[in-house]
Prior knowledge:
The complex is a heterodimer of chains A (about 575) and B (about 300).
Chain A: H1 30-34, H2 39-68, H3 78-112, H4 121-140, H5 167-195, H6 208-239, H7 253-287, H8 294-308, H9 323-351, H10 360-383, H11 385-391, H12 395-425, H13 431-457, H14 473-504, H15 542-554
Chain B: H1 5-31, H2 44-77, H3 93-122, E1 153-160, E2 163-167, E3 182-184, E4 186-190, E5 194-201, E6 206-208, E7 217-219, E8 225-230, E9 241-244, E10 257-263, H4 265-296
Parallel strand pairs in B: 1-5, 4-10
Antiparallel strand pairs in B: 1-2, 2-3, 5-8, 6-7, 9-10
Amino acid sequence: xxxxxxxxxxxxxxxxxxxxxxxxxxxxxxxxxxxxxxxxxxxxxxxxxxxxxxxxxxxxxxxxxxxxxxxxxxxxxxxxxxxxxxxxxxxxxxxxxxxxxxxxxxxxxxxxxxxxxxxxxxxxxxxxxxxxxxxxxxxxxxxxxxxxxxxxxxxxxxxxxxxxxxxxxxxxxxxxxxxxxxxxxxxxxxxxxxxxxxxxxxxxxxxxxxxxxxxxxxxxxxxxxxxxxxxxxxxxxxxxxxxxxxxxxxxxxxxxxxxxxxxxxxxxxxxxxxxxxxxxxxxxxxxxxxxxxxxxxxxxxxxxxxxxxxxxxxxxxxxxxxxxxxxxxxxxxxxxxxxxxxxxxxxxxxxxxxxxxxxxxxxxxxxxxxxxxxxxxxxxxxxxxxxxxxxxxxxxxxxxxxxxxxxxxxxxxxxxxxxxxxxxxxxxxxxxxxxxxxxxxxxxxxxxxxxxxxxxxxxxxxxxxxxxxxxxxxxxxxxxxxxxxxxxxxxxxxxxxxxxxxxxxxxxxxxxxxxxxxxxxxxxxxxxxxxxxxxxxxxxxxxxxxxxxxxxxxxxxxxxxxxxxxxxxxx
Amino acid sequence: xxxxxxxxxxxxxxxxxxxxxxxxxxxxxxxxxxxxxxxxxxxxxxxxxxxxxxxxxxxxxxxxxxxxxxxxxxxxxxxxxxxxxxxxxxxxxxxxxxxxxxxxxxxxxxxxxxxxxxxxxxxxxxxxxxxxxxxxxxxxxxxxxxxxxxxxxxxxxxxxxxxxxxxxxxxxxxxxxxxxxxxxxxxxxxxxxxxxxxxxxxxxxxxxxxxxxxxxxxxxxxxxxxxxxxxxxxxxxxxxxxxxxxxxxxxxxxxxxxxxxxxxxxxxxxxxxxxxxxxxxxxxxxxxxxxxxxxxxx
Lengths: 571, 298
């Protein structure tokens, strides 16, 4: 990160500038990272660490795909294979995507709402270091025996008589540490968003990404204590003689599934709602249109969050359950399709009659739209419980969840990376490499996962380390494996792009995209205190107002000189 | 209206791509019936699930093509060009209410489909007249789902790491003793007869699944799950239906396979009698051996 405050670049158009920055030099060196409480530095550490875990989780996935490329393959032992899918799932959920959004939120929520930092900067640092500790504990199990019970770690397989090695314990501490990290982070984000918005930024003017993060924080606060309780019960089952999940001694194996999914389903929305927020920011900027139906998009986020607490047992349709229970959870799952559908329709309508600029961020956003739609539609099949009886626990579900989580969250994450990288580093990512990366990821993703629907329909359960060569299973699996390596290559191209652009990328200037929200008001990268003056917010697109005002007052068309006159000093 | 050459070329490419995708789908669809739908054919409930699946598929396909169509049309039509002014539309309440109701109506339709098909999937059929006659008649028992009339056969399915055990007993509580015939991995069943399954797990959770015979049902220790199937007479002695455990149960989860082997009711009677004789003989032999060992041991 540049140590000094950057002067307005002469190459970029000097769009609204802050007049004065603080004079004190920013601390530099590695100690400045360890001791920092600056939300931007913490945000960058979150992003780098979680992306590293994303790469690790990706390598684990590729190893699984290698094993499955051939029928009856003997490349990996059953134990290694089980460890790999457990590590892959747990890494992607607990160490990549949820904390990745925490990182993006850390960096951008204060900037987007015109705040100078998070509400509790020291707690913010604690959140990050707890996350790092969680990752360390979990990956430490590589040196003895990683867990092998899947990321859902069902009872009673998770009990010590079936999995005596301490991998499950490492997994429990992963949940505890990342859980506390997320919980503190969520409280921090909530307090920040509720209390520290710029003057004039009412709830109806809150950027939609911030809406997504607000609901993400609330869902984390509601869901995490449940899983924390569940893994604590598991810990005492394993080591202190309790029998919560041990059927032979009066416990209940199904209790685990209820507790886990009571957390696990809101978790899905914890993963995708911030992604929805990114899409709702990126689409208007690159179509040069306001978001279609701001209120509907914000309100549907709240409705989704509410309903997400009521659908958990649709993960348990094959368990011994009364028909009434099955019907209830089918209907509640149907209901959640309505607000999700509303979002998709609103995004599509945002494209309508726009002037679409095909930048990489926009490509990933529409890639999200087309891909996530498919995940939503296969979700309807799974909500119909008699059909779910055929599909659950097969590769159809694997395909569905990746369409939702990669289509819904990872595409949005990449869109966010390409959109906000200039703000974080002050430099642009290469559009050429970005587009190569996008097409590789899009094609690789669909080649990997579309065929997995058929693998599941053909009768292949998930979490099997080998399969017999019947029907077209070997061909289908080979297609999927080839796709996964294309996908991996696409991710690598973005990594190269980031590594290159951080040094040699074109200077971005404060507002390279002509954005709508306040983060584009300050310089790139922003100074430690973010803003010397915080403008009064008059609409959901404050930067549009500012640009218009500057143009009007300067009488120079749309080439406004610095600095901005209209601003309110925040005390 | 004459289109510019590049646009015409692009359209031709798009059409060719579409045709290629359809051709590939059609050819593989012919090669494998289960590219797009769950397996079926072994039992009426599996067939009804398949029908329900296709009903949903039809609705889903319309929604999918409609929405993706609008997305691709917009991306093509509304690219930023010189002189294009983006319409500053902030919303349209009537339209938005419209599509919210539209989405809800689609889901109501899917719900109706499900409720119409559900009883035939969940509740066991009646055995055919030529089915196995040695089974059980309905017992007044609200906790179980049995055919409304006629005889049926109950099999107690027990999952354990990493094998399936089948006990031919009227219910699981009376299950694991040598009074009843039992077998592992291969389940012989009479055709044209409704087979009800009481499924449970002995150690960890497993899941019973024979794709062509219907959905999967978890075998959770401490709980009993229920399903059923009825294999048509034409399959007697001709084929077998394979499946495997569908819930992660440990390292050899992938090897926990199951086979259902349909035989005619007469053959089944013979098989069952043979099993009972064999089990009894083995039990007697084991008892004798035990006695022998007790004598010789200090």
